[in-house]
Amino acid sequence: MKKYKQTEGVNTNEYIIRRPLYLPIFYLLMLLSFLALWLWNPSPDGSFEEQLLYIIDKAFYLIFGFSFWIPTTIIALVLFAMNCYTYFRFKLVIHEQSFSVTPFFGATHDVAFSSVETITQKAFAKLGHYIEIIYDNKKIRIPYTVNMKGVFRQSSIAVLLKKFENHKTAKEEMEFRIEKMDRFRIVGFSTSLSKEYSEEHEFEVYKKLWAKAIIKNYKLDAVATESNTTSPLAGWFCVKIYLEGDDNWRYMIGPVSSKPLEKKFDEYTIPALTWAIFPGKNAFTGEPTDDSEATRLEQRILTEWLPSSDYELVSGPVLQRILSVSEYFRENMGFPFELWFPIQKK
User: Fold this and answer.
1) Which of 171, 192, 209 is the last residue of a domain?
2) For the stretch 284-299, what's the b/e string if a residue is b when 16 or more beta carbons lie within 10 angstroms of its beta carbon?
3) What is the C-alpha separation between 104 and 90, in angstroms, rounded?
4) How many Å separate Cα 18 from the centre of its chain?
5) Are residue 137 and residue 228 in the same domain, yes or no?
């Protein structure tokens, strides 16, 4: 995509793009010129330009029986009317994750940035260009102009290109995979949480639970039924369990197990879902309760990948899978992890 410049201080919440006004103005000037020539009635005894116009008009009259300026004026009027219609009719409104289009003909419809195949800039003159948007086997061409410094006269054009570039980059750069899983059961330790807890208190609760889980990891590994490290269900899963109609919830850590439940463990069954799975390098930077990298990854998934993808979230828990909690991995790899989001096709 070509480089473009954007004016400073632009609010990117919502923008409207219309076709440039120069086209209706151009055809209006053409209409007025032809109308003036029609009413002027050039003389054969005038200047060279006037004689030339007289000869053209008379030759046309001898062939067709009416003045040359009548059809030219009518054509200019039609072109002016068509360009006025397209100027006032066409509208492209840019939203946060999509844009809506009111075409020349047909109803207004929304287009998600994820469904856009390409948005390219094409030039046909020094100060006159158009952008071409291709989506869902449809094509839109929007003329635009730039000033002598190369800045878009409609700042909305720059916003549209920037948003598409951001969505495209987020979609291409984030590593993920889509997997469909049958229901499975997590067995391990859990603790209760409340919305009334402060962040510091909640942090301490996480810390105590993780300390307990790591100290007793041999007990958790003993009940795990997915011991093969290549299995997508190997390792430990962390999940927040929300109870309907209850302000409290539980935070649980444990492996996947199909063995009979022992009294010292809690259990939670994950329903059959399709998951978008994103890998991370270090679930905990420093202490096992500091999940800053996981938090940053989750924010990117929700704000960058999800809006630009072909998927949407469905009801279900968001899981964090810790691939290994062994001393080797903790010392050498820093707890590699995955975030699992329940999704479906839009």
Assistant:
1) 171
2) beeebbbbebbeebbe
3) 6
4) 21
5) no
| Per-residue three-class SS string for the chain | CCCCECCCCCCCCCEEECCCCHHHHHHHHHHHHHHHHHHHCCCCCCCHHHHHHHHHHHHHHHHHCCCCHHHHHHHHHHHHHHHHHHHHHCEEEECCCEEEEECCCCCCEEEEHHHEEEEEEEECCCCEEEEEEEECCEEEEEEEEECCCCEECCHHHHHHHHHHHHHHHHHHHCCCEEEEECCEEEEEEEEEEECCCCHHHHHHHHHHHHHHHHHCHHHHHHHCCCCCCCCCCCCEEEEEEECCCCCEEEEEEECECCCCCCCCCEEEEECCEEEEEEEECCCCCCCCCCCHHHHHHHHHHHHHHHHHCCEEECCCCCEEEECCCCHHHHHHCCCCEEEEEEEEEC
pTM: 0.53
Q: Which two tokens stand for residue 248?
A: 């409290």
Q: Are residues 226 and 207 in the same domain?
A: yes
Cα Rg of the chain (Å, integer): 33
In whole angstroms, what is the distance from residue 335 CA to residue 281 CA? 7
Domain-embedded: residue 165: yes
Do residues 240 and 209 lie in contact, with contact meaning Cβ atoms separated by under 8 Å? no
b (16+ CB within 10 A) / e for 213-240 = beeebeebeebbbbeeeeebbbbbbbbe
Residue where one domain finishes, among candidates 141, 171, 201: 171
Beta bridge mates, 152: 146
Across the 346 residues of the chain, what is the mean pLDDT of every consecutive 10-residue run? Answer: 38 70 91 87 80 88 89 93 91 85 86 79 66 85 79 82 74 81 90 74 77 72 68 85 71 86 84 92 55 75 80 90 63 72 91
For residues 205 and 191, is the Cβ–Cβ distance under 8 A? yes
Q: Residue 256 is part of which domain span?
A: 177-345
Name the packing angle between helices 69-89 and 22-40 (round to 10°).
Answer: 160
Q: Closest Cα partner for 204 from 288, 131, 146?
A: 288
340 and 191 together in one domain: yes
